[in-house]
Design goal:
The structure is a single chain. By secondary structure, the chain is an alpha/beta fold. It has one domain (about 5-15, about 70-210): Rossmann fold. The protein has helices spanning about 20-30, 35-40, 45-55, 60-65, 75-85, 100-110, 145-155, 185-190, 205, and strands at about 5-10, 90-100, 115-125, 125-130, 160-165, 180, 195-200. It has a seven-stranded mixed beta sheet with strand order 4-3-2-1-5-6-7, sandwiched between helices. Strand 6, helix 8 (about 185-190) and strand 7 form a beta-alpha-beta unit. The model has no long low-confidence stretch (mean pLDDT about 95).
C-alpha cells in the first residue's frame, strides 16, 4: 500500500451519526455528561473528561458494548471507505476517543483492520485503566495529537487529507494538506477564512477524491 497520499478520518461525528462516548456516558455514567460538557467549554482536557467520567461507571464491558449496535456510519461512509480500500489508498482513523469501540464499530460495519490512532482502555478487576499513546504535551487539552500524527506522515513525503467535524479536530487546521470539514469544524474554518472542503455526508466527497 502506498502512503504517498493519505486520508485520515476523525471518528465520532465524522464517520458516525452519533458521539459514542456520549452514548456511553448518558447510559452508564453516574455523572452523565457533566465532564463532557466541561470539556466542550474548554474547562478540562480530554484525558480529564475520560478518566473522571469512567470513574463513575460500574457497567461491565459486555454491557457497554450493547450500545455499539446503535452506532451507525453516516450516509456514504461505507461506500467511501470501501472505495479507498479497493483503490489501495492509505487510510487511518485519528481520534480522541477509545480504540476499543472504534475497532468494534468499524469491524461490525465490515472494515476490520483499519489503522487506528486513539486511546487505549483496559478492563481491570478494580476498574478501567487507560493509555494515551498519542498524547503530546504541546497540546495538553487533547489526548491524541492530530497535528503530530499528520506531521508524521508528511515527514515521510505524504500528502495528507484530514476529514473531521468537531473541536478535537482543530489541531488539523493549518497542518493537513487538505481539510474536509462538516458541522462545527466547518463553521470554525469558515469564520477564520481557512481553506477547506465542506461536506454533509460522504456522498458529497466521492467525486472530489477521484482526481487523487
Amino acid at each position: 500500500m502506498t502512503a504517498s497520499y493519505v486520508i485520515l478520518f476523525d471518528f465520532d461525528g465524522t464517520l458516525t451519526e452519533s458521539e459514542t462516548m456520549d452514548l456511553i456516558y448518558n447510559r452508564f455514567a453516574a455523572c452523565g455528561l457533566k465532564y463532557s460538557r466541561q470539556w466542550s467549554q474548554g474547562k478540562i482536557s480530554t484525558i480529564q473528561e475520560i478518566t473522571s467520567t469512567f470513574a463513575t461507571i460500574t457497567a461491565s464491558r459486555e454491557e457497554l458494548e450493547t450500545l455499539f449496535e446503535k452506532t451507525t456510519l453516516i450516509p456514504g461512509a461505507v461506500e467511501f471507505l470501501q472505495r479507498c480500500i479497493d483503490e489501495d489508498r492509505h487510510i487511518a482513523v485519528v481520534s480522541d476517543g477509545l480504540r476499543w469501540y472504534i475497532d468494534s464499530i468499524l469491524s461490525r460495519a465490515g472494515f476490520p483492520g483499519i489503522r487506528i490512532y486513539a486511546n487505549g482502555i483496559y478492563f481491570e478487576p478494580d476498574g478501567f485503566k487507560f493509555s494515551f499513546t498519542w498524547y503530546d504535551p504541546d497540546t495538553p487539552m487533547r489526548s491524541s495529537s492530530k497535528a503530530g500524527i499528520i506531521r508524521r506522515y508528511q515527514r515521510r513525503g505524504s500528502f495528507v487529507t484530514f476529514i473531521g467535524n468537531g473541536k478535537s479536530d482543530t489541531g488539523a487546521v493549518g497542518v493537513a494538506d487538505r481539510l474536509c470539514a462538516r458541522d462545527w469544524l466547518a463553521d470554525y474554518c469558515e469564520e477564520r477564512a481557512v481553506e477547506f472542503v465542506r461536506f454533509n455526508n460522504f456522498y458529497d466527497l466521492m467525486e472530489k477524491f477521484q482526481q487523487h
